[in-house]
Amino acid sequence: MFPIGKRTHIMDLHQIEIFCTVIRLRSFSKAADMLYLTQPTVSSHIKNLEQELGVELIDRLGKHAVPTEAGEILHRYGLKLLALRDSAQQEIEAVSGKVAGRLTIGGSTIPGAYVLPSLIASFRNDHPSAAIQLVIDDTAKITQAVLNSELNIGIIGARVKDPHLETHVFLRDELVVAVSIKHRWSGRKAVSPHDLREEPFILREQGSGTRRIMEERLARAGVPLSGLNAVAVMGSSDAVRQAVKAGLGISILSIRAIADDVRAGSLAALRVKGVVLERNFSIILLKNRNRSTLCRAFLDFLLKGSKK
User: Fold this and answer.
1) Average model confidence (pLDDT) for the chain?
2) Contact 81/110 with Cβ under 8 angstroms?
3) What is d(CA 261, CA 114) in angstroms, rounded to the nearest whole number?
4) Sorting pLDDT into bands at 50, 70 and 90, what band is 10?
5) Residue 13 and residue 1 in one domain
6) In sequence order, what are the beta bridge partners of 190?
7) What is the residue range of 49's domain?
8) Is 236 exposed, middle or buried (0-12, 13-18, 19+ CB in 10 A)?
9) Are residues 123 and 214 in the same domain?
């Protein structure tokens, strides 16, 4: 029994999860989107947590949310508390055999935006008690989040070699040259690698799987990144394709990202002669990490789908 009149600190796991999500994403707005909350709600939970503990937990530095010294301590212990919660849930699920609970997965830009949403919907049709959160970021950040145990499963657009990761080949994809339908190349089926030097070129950001594959394959064909006339660097395929449609330049993107624009007649897709720009999406998981019934079921679902 607590002494009468004495204040006690009872931290809410939900608030701790919100706090850890803000710290991981370095953003209140991104955390709100991921957790399906409004930004004011996220801010209110963090403020309540700070009032409860009597310390500031987050420094608001411009657009970034950075933990204070106290925040770093809470983040470290918060991750352990959330891991214990998940472990307890996994054991209960194992006893019941029920595919339920929460799963946090990550997708790099292309699989995250164009592949995973429909797969998640299909999986939940069979397992309505499952709640799946999808984080979309570039390949490098999704990989690091899996290594940090922040994500249960990652689906990325470039192959990574890390002894701590278990990797499975997923779906095939093809990169193509995207040009505006008004561009002088729009009637072509292919261009040479050296033709790409002539045009203003829009790049994806560092860490993008699309950029990594493009850079590796073009370099082998004698066209290093430094040989392109880069006019812009953009952080998403959607931003790139809008810029291409606006006539800012050309780019190399996944055919999945521009398929609707090609069908609508606003973009044209060309291949690069003598350069294979096909790739496999990869499923990555942390080796030796305990996996819930839900995690195993979703992984099996993805692997079976990739073999169809």
Assistant:
1) 89
2) no
3) 14
4) low
5) yes
6) 271
7) 1-96
8) middle
9) no
Task: Identify whether residues 178 and 167 lie together within a single domain.
Answer: no
Residues 203, 230: Cα–Cα separation, whole Å:
7
Q: Kindly state the tokens that stand for 69.
A: 């010294």
Number of independent structural domains in the chain: 3
Q: In terms of domains, do 298 and 164 share one? A: yes
- Nearest to 175, CA basis, from 222, 110, 248: 110
The values of phi and psi at residue 169, to 5°, are -70, 135
**CA-to-CA separations, 209 to 70, 114, 236, in angstroms, rounded:** 35, 15, 11
Question: Of all residues in the chain, what percent carry a pLDDT higher than 90?
Answer: 66
Residue 165 sits in the same domain as residue 286? yes
Show contacts of 191-194: CB within 8 Å, 24+ apart. 191/270, 191/272, 191/273, 192/272, 192/273, 192/274, 193/218, 193/221, 193/222, 193/223, 193/272, 193/273, 193/274, 193/275, 194/222, 194/223
Report the relative pairing of strands 101-107 and 130-136 from DSSP bridges. Answer: parallel
The burial of 253, by beta-carbon neighbours within 10 Å (0-12 exposed, 13-18 middle, 19 or more buried), is given as buried
